[in-house]
Design brief:
This protein is 52% helix and 17% strand. It has 272 residues and is α/β, with parallel strands linked by helices. The protein starts with 7 loop residues before the first strand and ends in a 6-residue tail after the last helix.
Length: 272
C-alpha cells in the first residue's frame, strides 16, 4: 500500500504473531519499521531477514511496561527521522482461569503490559504527533474489549480500558491531526494461547475448546486496510463481528452465552 511507503513506524510486540506480520508487511510496503519486543531473539531474526531484503527495519529489545524505556525509544525514533507517523501498540499477554483463582500478580502483570504498555506508548507518541499536526496511533485491544469475556478477566479488563481510551483519544486528536484506531481481533492463530498462563484449568483442554481462527498474516491485512481508511474500530474475523453485533443488539443474549461458556470452562478445572 502506497500510504505506508516511507513512513516511520514503531510496532510493539513484534517478535511473533500479529506484530511480526505487521512488521513484515509494512517493511515490504517501503516503511521504516522499528520492531520492539521483550523476546529479542525471534524479533532480531525477523528484522535481520528483512534487512537482507534491502528493507529498512530495526529491532529494539523493550519491555512496554517500562515507561522510561518506551519514552526513550519513541523520542529517539522521532528525533532520528524527524517524525513518527504510526505507532502500533500491539504487545499483550493473557491469563486464563477464574477470578476466584487469580493472584494479585495475575491481575497486575496483565494490566502492566496490556493497559500501561499501551498507555506508555501513547503518552510518549501523542505529544510528538500533536506538535507536528499528524500521526496515527493504533492500539490492539480484542473482541474481549467489546464483549465481557469470562475466564480471562484481567485480559478483558485491560482490553475494555484500551477500547475506551482509544475512542476518547480519537475524539480529542481529530482536530489536532492525530488519528487513533483500536483493533479488536477475534481468534487469531498466534502463540499467545500457548504462552499464556492458565490458573486452575487444564491447558490442553482449554486450548482445544477454542474456535479455529485466521492467520496473523490475514489479520494484519485487515488491520492495515482499516488503518489506511482511518477506521475508528477494526474488528477482525467474521465470528467476532457477529458476536459484537449480537452484543449490541441483545447484551442479555451474550451474557447467557457467557454463562453457558463458564459451565464448560469449569469442567476443565484442575487442582492447583
Amino acid at each position: 500500500m502506497k500510504i505506508y511507503d516511507g513512513k516511520v513506524i514503531i510496532i510493539t510486540g513484534a517478535a511473533s504473531g500479529i506484530g511480526k506480520a505487521l512488521a513484515q508487511k509494512l517493511a515490504r510496503f517501503g516503511a521504516i519499521v522499528v520492531m520492539t519486543d521483550v523476546n529479542s531473539g525471534p524479533m532480531e531474526e525477523t528484522a535481520g531477514a528483512l534487512t537482507k531484503e534491502g528493507l529498512k527495519t530495526k529491532a529494539v529489545t523493550l519491555d512496554v511496561s517500562d515507561r522510561d524505556g518506551v519514552s526513550k525509544l519513541v523520542e529517539d525514533t522521532a528525533a532520528e527521522h524527524g517524525r513518527l507517523d504510526y505507532l502500533f501498540n500491539n504487545a499483550g499477554i493473557g491469563v486464563g482461569g477464574e477470578a476466584r483463582d487469580f493472584s494479585y500478580d495475575d491481575w497486575k502483570k496483565v494490566l502492566d503490559v496490556n493497559l500501561y504498555g499501551t498507555l506508555n506508548g501513547t503518552f510518549a507518541a501523542y505529544p510528538i504527533m500533536v506538535k507536528r499536526g499528524s500521526g496515527h496511533i493504533i492500539n490492539t485491544a480484542s473482541l474481549a474489549g467489546l464483549i465481557p469475556f469470562p475466564a480471562e478477566i484481567s485480559y478483558t479488563t485491560s482490553k475494555y480500558a484500551i477500547v475506551g481510551m482509544s475512542h476518547a483519544l480519537r475524539a480529542e486528536g481529530a482536530a489536532l491531526g492525530v488519528n487513533v484506531t483500536v483493533v479488536c481481533p477475534g481468534k487469531i492463530e498466534t502463540s499467545i494461547y500457548r504462552t499464556s498462563k492458565f490458573v486452575g484449568l487444564d491447558r490442553e483442554k482449554a486450548l482445544a475448546f477454542l474456535p479455529k481462527g485466521v492467520t496473523a498474516e490475514e489479520c494484519a491485512d485487515v488491520i492495515l486496510k482499516g488503518v489506511a481508511r482511518n477506521k475508528a474500530t477494526i474488528v477482525v474475523t467474521f465470528l467476532a463481528k457477529l458476536m459484537w453485533i449480537l452484543h449490541r443488539i441483545s447484551p442479555g443474549l451474550i451474557n447467557w452465552v457467557a454463562k453457558i461458556y463458564m459451565k464448560k470452562v469449569r469442567s476443565m478445572k484442575i487442582e492447583n
